[in-house]
UniProtKB/TrEMBL annotation, chain A:
It comes from Hypocrea jecorina (strain QM6a) (Trichoderma reesei). Belongs to the mitochondrion-specific ribosomal protein mL50 family. This is Large ribosomal subunit protein mL50. It is found in: Mitochondrion. Residues 16-28 have a biased composition (Low complexity). Residues 1-104 are annotated as: Disordered. The keyword Kinase does not apply. One of its GO terms (cellular component) is ribosome.
TrEMBL record, chain B:
Residues 56-65 have a biased composition (Pro residues). Signal peptide: none annotated. Residues 77-269 form the RNase III domain. CDD domains: DSRM_MRPL3_like (cd19873). The keyword Acyltransferase does not apply. InterPro entries: dsRBD_dom (IPR014720), Ribosomal_mL44_DSRM_fung (IPR044443), Ribosomal_mL44_DSRM_metazoa (IPR044444), RNase_III_dom (IPR000999), RNase_III_sf (IPR036389). This is Large ribosomal subunit protein mL44. Belongs to the ribonuclease III family. Mitochondrion-specific ribosomal protein mL44 subfamily. It comes from Hypocrea jecorina (strain ATCC 56765 / BCRC 32924 / NRRL 11460 / Rut C-30).
UniProtKB/TrEMBL annotation, chain C:
This is Large ribosomal subunit protein mL43. Pfam families: L51_S25_CI-B8 (PF05047). It is found in: Mitochondrion. Its main location: mitochondrion.
Length: 381, 398, 128
């Protein structure tokens, strides 16, 4: 699970008291010295015919050399520490709703407290203190990284592979796009997220509409406004996946339609809208390079549909029942590995037991690092 | 002649000789309870299960040997079945059971102990009748050894290996049912050796009775049946351990052959079993003349001639060469009256004479009426010719 | 123990055949065809042999014969057609499992000669 590792790295640097050298200062490598850049001003002037834009040295965003001061050490130190106390957390992190680890706080020392408050008694134990784990387990703690923080993609998590089902979804996307066009809000909504349409009714509503195509121009006959309404509704829906259609259902539906609807001519906005909608509904993303060649909805369908994977030999044999009545033939689905062989002769349980007795990993390397020699050879160590 | 029913023999065998000695330790023939499933849950466990029926049952401990449910799935087992050209009447489950030895699964309902015992009686019966009819004058000790050569564990192990039977590395539930399940464990169960522990066994190995008592008291091969404790208290060298391992291994493999024959008998009947024994066990070649070892051949031959009423044997030098050389050769013939009993060659006169005596004795002992000798079990075939009693010798000479 | 096995098992000495194939690789094309089309008939004709068909992804197809004497014979059948593979399988089935050796004697026998060893002390003797 990826949990904003950069955040975790960023936070302790805030807590660390010692000021880090700035990034620019750390990058001291430069091919041109400032003194030399003065010498190259004239040629820059010639090249640009007047005032040259940009810095003299474009490769390093060199900070202005610090002014030479005659201040004593203490004064310098105090000024630098005051700067490091400034909050340097990125704005995005500061505004996020994530529960971040607490920042470093400072309290008065014991002596100062005693001086100001005569009733102060130093604590003898950690009773009543809030327990927080170490920083390394921060995101594992409850409430810090819950369901709401998980990544949710735009595309459907369940990928549709059957061609018939894809066709149904594509038809729905075409109808919806046409409906938006008829309502005249297509330009506005092309780049927004359309409502996911979890309910079966919405889909049936969209599929009920008739599409008539004449020379590539498509007209929608049906309740276009209702469809557009359903799409553009801002209501925050409950998490729902697009309704599942079985292959048989999809086959029935596609048979009932006239196939002419697939000849809809696509212009660029419509093309992208269809692609986006199809990705949202089915999880199938058509590559950009191929999308440009798609001129009709039929092309889109060809691009989105994949041939089913060829069957494995073992599956073919099972399907044909080739060795059905032969008891002396055994067909294995998977590779017969060394462990399978040992299991078949009964030695594996003995091996397992002995390995466990010695606290050795049964399979794999356990905690032992893998192949240190390779690291030596590749210069990693 | 009545049909032989070895399944009824056990009762007679158990009771006929009760006074003769202490019965050997043997597999208890009790019917262990194994309810519904194939797992070998002891009876006490099942009672506790009933009381806590609502709670989820604890995971059953793994079976000591593969369940017979899996037998039809095993390609190895099917191939073995076909390789032995067994009849379709013998199910694969029975063949799978024949491969489970008591050392793997002690439950007699699921191991091959009973089948193996039945098979061993059938094998021994057929081999005995064949040996006795083919070589009617074999001395008892040689007969025992000949029987061992045909039906002993080592020979049966060779047969099982020729069949392609492989042993599992360690028996268990997950093992292929087509593999022989056995382990050289601490529990040395004597299952196919039936006999009596002699009361004088405590007196040591040197104390040995004569052959007649071996016939009565000892196992089928004339071996003394020892209690398991005495066998383990032998010299604790690695050599003896290896020997014991080999013995157990050949016992396990041998029990497979015996159990298969027992299974054939139970499922297909007597004739099939006899044909199987004939083609797999009696078809093996045995040269009984190699089993002899004589201590006093000359005296034995003289006794033989005296008993049979021949003229006393006389050794005559037939030819010789190189008497004064480094390698002399003498050819000596033994004559009884005018008949030559045998001849032998040797590097000295005495050796040649002894060898000639041994040849004549072997010629006597190895008399055979021919290869087409009829055995008693031939009479069980329908429409068999009337029985003519074979010649059986009166016995050994000394 | 003087018993010698006189009779071999009638059905030969091959007890198991392992057939490995790959679903993806082109060198397994013939092997896959063999398993699909020819193996059912071959296995039905040879019930005494155990057949284990298993994939070996990313490797050339191999047939391994296991014999009763404990030896194995592997044959790589990459790029072979199904009928060529059938020949190889028949070769493995008919092999004894022994190491291949040159036979320069017409008869191999464990028996001593039928006529016996010639002896100088018997018969009429030879005039020198």
């Amino acid at each position: 699970m990826r949990r904003l590792q950069s955040l975790q790295l960023a936070v302790p640097s805030q807590c660390a008291a010692a000021p880090r050298p700035s990034f620019a200062a750390a990058r001291a490598i430069s091919t041109t010295s400032p003194a030399r850049s003065k010498n190259t001003d004239w040629i820059r002037g010639k090249l640009w015919k007047g005032e040259a834009p940009g810095p003299a040295d474009p490769y390093t965003q060199r900070m202005e050399p610090e002014a030479q001061t005659n201040l004593p050490e203490e004064a310098l130190e105090s000024s630098s520490s005051s700067r490091s106390r400034r909050d340097k957390t990125p704005a995005a992190v500061r505004e996020s709703r994530l529960a971040l680890p607490g920042r470093r706080t400072e309290v008065a020392a014991e002596k100062e407290l005693q001086a100001s408050d005569p009733t102060y008694v130093p604590a003898a134990d950690a009773e009543g203190l809030e327990e927080i784990g170490p920083l390394s387990t921060w995101w594992e703690q409850p409430g810090h990284w819950g369901e709401e923080s998980e990544f949710k993609g735009f595309g459907s998590a369940v990928k549709v592979v059957e061609k018939e089902v894809l066709e149904v979804y594509l038809r729905r996307a075409v109808v919806e796009a046409l409906a938006l066009q008829q309502k005249g809000v297509f330009a506005e909504w092309a780049t927004k997220k359309w409502s996911e349409g979890g309910a079966r009714g919405e889909m049936d509503q969209a599929l009920a509409a008739q599409v008539e195509v004449q020379d590539g121009k498509a007209t929608l006959k049906g309740d276009a406004s209702a469809i557009a309404e359903a799409l553009t509704s801002e209501a925050e829906e409950v998490e729902s996946t697009p309704p599942v259609i079985t292959v048989e259902e999809a086959r029935e539906m596609t048979k009932s339609w006239d196939s002419s609807w697939k000849n809809v001519a696509l212009d660029n906005p419509l093309r992208f809208a269809l692609r986006k909608r199809l990705y949202q509904l089915t999880g199938v993303l058509i590559p950009d390079a191929k999308l440009a060649a798609a001129n009709t909805a039929k092309h889109i369908l060809t691009l989105a549909a994949r041939d089913p994977k060829p069957l494995k030999l073992a599956q073919v044999l099972e399907k044909r029942n080739a060795f059905g009545d032969l008891a002396n033939v055994k067909v294995h689905e998977r590779r017969v590995g060394p462990i399978d062989k040992e299991v078949a002769v009964g030695r594996w349980k003995v091996i397992e037991e002995e390995l466990k007795k010695r606290d050795l990993p049964v399979t794999g390397y356990g905690d032992a690092p893998r192949n240190k020699e390779r690291d030596w050879l590749t210069g990693k160590i | 002649m009545k049909r032989i029913r070895p399944s009824r023999w056990s009762g007679q065998l158990l009771q006929a000789r009760r006074g003769a000695g202490i019965p050997a330790a043997r597999t208890p023939l009790c019917l262990a309870v194994r309810c519904q499933s194939t797992s070998s849950v002891p009876a006490s466990d099942s009672s506790t299960l009933d009381s806590s029926s609502s709670a989820s049952p604890p995971p059953a401990p793994p079976l000591p040997a593969p369940s017979f449910d899996r037998a039809p799935q095993s390609a190895k087992l099917a191939a073995l079945h076909a390789r032995l050209s067994l009849s379709k009447k013998i199910p694969l489950q029975t063949l799978a059971r024949a491969l489970v030895t008591p050392s793997a699964d002690a439950n007699p309902n699921f191991n091959n102990a009973n089948l193996a015992y039945l098979g061993s009686t059938i094998i021994n019966f057929h081999v005995y009748e064949y040996l006795v009819c083919k070589w009617p004058r074999l001395p008892m000790a040689i007969l025992y050894e000949a029987l061992r050569a045909y039906a002993g564990d080592e020979s049966l192990q060779q047969i099982a290996r020729r069949w392609g039977v492989e042993a599992a590395a360690a028996p268990g539930e997950e093992v292929d049912p087509g593999l022989l399940q056995w382990k050289a464990g601490e529990s040395n169960v004597v299952n196919t050796r039936w006999g009596y522990i002699r009361s004088e066994a405590a007196k040591g190995k040197a104390w040995r009775r004569g052959l007649s008592s071996r016939v009565v008291l000892d196992s089928d091969f004339g071996d003394q049946v020892s209690s398991s404790s005495s066998s383990s208290s032998s010299s604790s060298a690695s050599e003896s351990e290896r020997l014991e391992y080999n013995t157990l291994q050949s016992e396990a493999f041998g029990s497979v052959v015996q159990a298969v024959i027992g299974a054939i008998y139970t499922h297909c009947g007597r004739d099939e079993a006899k044909a199987f024994v004939k083609s797999h066990i009696l078809s093996r070649e045995l040269d009984p003349s190699r089993l002899f070892q004589f201590k006093l051949p000359t005296r034995e031959l003289a006794m033989l001639c005296a008993r049979e009423g021949f003229e006393p044997p006389v050794a005559r030098l037939e030819s010789e060469t190189g008497r004064l050389s480094r390698t002399p050769v003498y050819v000596v013939g033994i004559y009884s009256g005018k008949e030559k009993l045998g001849e032998g060659t040797g590097a000295s006169l005495d050796v040649a004479r002894r060898k000639a005596c041994m040849t004549s004795l072997k010629a006597w002992y190895l008399y055979s009426p021919g290869n087409k000798v009829r055995v008693p079990s031939d009479m069980m075939e329908p429409g068999a010719k009337p029985w003519t009693a074979p010649h059986i010798d009166i016995g050994e000479i000394i | 123990m003087t018993v010698k096995a006189l009779r071999a098992i009638a059905d030969g000495k091959c007890k198991k055949l392992d057939l490995h194939y790959c679903d993806w690789a082109g060198s397994s094309k013939g092997m896959n065809g063999f398993i699909k089309s020819l193996l059912p008939k071959f296995a039905a004709a040879n019930p005494q042999i155990e057949f284990a068909v298993s994939p070996r992804p990313g490797k050339h197809p191999v047939i391994v014969g296991h014999y009763i004497n404990g030896r194995t014979k592997p044959i790589c059948v990459r790029n072979l057609s199904p009928y060529e593979i059938l020949q190889k399988v028949e070769l493995l089935r008919d092999a004894s499992g022994e190491k291949l050796r040159r036979t320069n004697k017409a008869v191999l026998s464990t028996k001593p000669s039928v006529r016996g060893i010639w002896s100088p002390y018997h018969g009429k003797g030879m005039a020198v």
